[in-house]
Amino acid sequence: MSAHLVDREPVVGAEELVAELVPPPRFGVVRFDTYLPDPQEPSQAAAVTACAAFADRVTGADKGRSLLRRVFGGGKPDGKPGLYLDGGFGVGKTHLLASVWHAVPGPKAYGTFVELTNLVGALGFREAVARLSDHRLLAIDEFELDDPGDTMLVTRLLAELTDAGVSVAATSNTLPDKLGEGRFAADEFLREIQALSARFTVVRVDGPDYRHRGLPDAPPPVSDAELAARAEATAESTVDDFGALCAHLARLHPSRYGKLVDGVRAVHLRGVRPLSGQDVALRVVALADRLYDRAIPVVVSGAPVSELFTPDMLRGGYRKKYLRAVSRLVALSRDAATLTG
Q1: Last residue of a domain, one of 208, 229, 259
Q2: Which of the pair, 244 or 192, is modelled with greater confidence?
Q3: Which has the least CB within 10 A, 81, 169, 178, 193?
Q4: Same domain, 332 and 220
């Protein structure tokens, strides 16, 4: 009998949160020389050069910073302390971010934006600053400000860390001075957003979504009977009613979604349908990201994954997040076609 994600209640302690600040499995072995720039998009080759130069500067500047601290008790490298990779989904920004992380010696940390904010919540602000302030590098994937509280928290956190000499590399689908736009009263927090933006050098990465370059569309949804049979035939897989899983996600912090699917070989979702609210949709986005990080194939019945987000959602402030989730879920659905029992 197949297992169910809704039966899992993952718990992640504070120390485990700190220990897990490393790239996810999909990006555990990537390097700059494994990134294949699209020859039609010169910004991609330029981004590799910029990221490699940033990693070299962080590594070299850290040696100088250590000497300054020993002699003068302070000091930080010249230039902006942050590198910000901006571009559409599927252009390899996470690959480049993980490559920066791999190229820089420790101590260092890597996490998604939601993992970082959850870490601060679990440890407390001062303890989080203390844990991270001796790092050479903090890498933040999927950087986004979805509410005013996060704006204030992250601005303050990154100000303290960069003032302590920590370099920061981040990826996002939104320019740093446009964070939060269309989602909350960003103009009321303009000073904080501009202060955050001033700490980053922006590198643009353009191009088509590499996940679907020259590949066929995702396979269509299967019947409920076929979905059950495929789940039964695939070891270490799960099968869940889509609505029940969405309700279960509401009871878990998004930082626990990774552990929710750890050890799962394939996820089967029965009765997929378009989502009805932004809160539910954003949780599904977070789950899709964790499934993609772990390269876990997805099989669905009901509606295709390309119809998860309504036209109104795709016109709103979270449009790029939703499109990224569709791109990743389509790729995972395609991967599912290669599964054997």
Answers
A1: 208
A2: 244
A3: 178
A4: yes
Q: Which domain holds residue 124?
A: 31-208
Residue 107 sits in the same domain as residue 80 = yes
Domain count, the chain: 2
User: Do 54 and 169 touch, CB atoms closer than 8 A?
Assistant: yes
Same domain, 199 and 253: no
**Region 167-171 average pLDDT:** 92
Give whole-number Cα distances, 27 to 49, 117, 129, 176, 236, in Å. Answer: 19, 21, 26, 24, 22
Q: Summarize the confidence of residues 44-64 as an average pLDDT.
A: 86
Shortest CA distance to 170 belongs to which of 66, 84, 104, 260? 84
Q: Which of 119, 14, 134, 5 is nearest to 62 (CA)?
A: 134
Cα–chain center distance at 261: 15
> How would residue 214 be classed by pLDDT, with cut points 50, 70 and 90?
low
- Other residues' Cβ atoms within 10 Å of the Cβ of residue 71: 9
pLDDT digits (tens, 9 = 90+) for 236-279: 999 999 999 999 999 998 888 999 999 999 999 999 999 988 89
Which residue matches tokens 């490559």?
A: 99
Can you list the pairs that 314-318 forms with residues at least 24 positions away whose Cβ atoms lie under 8 Å? 316/182, 316/278, 317/181, 317/182, 317/183, 318/183, 318/278, 318/281, 318/282, 318/285
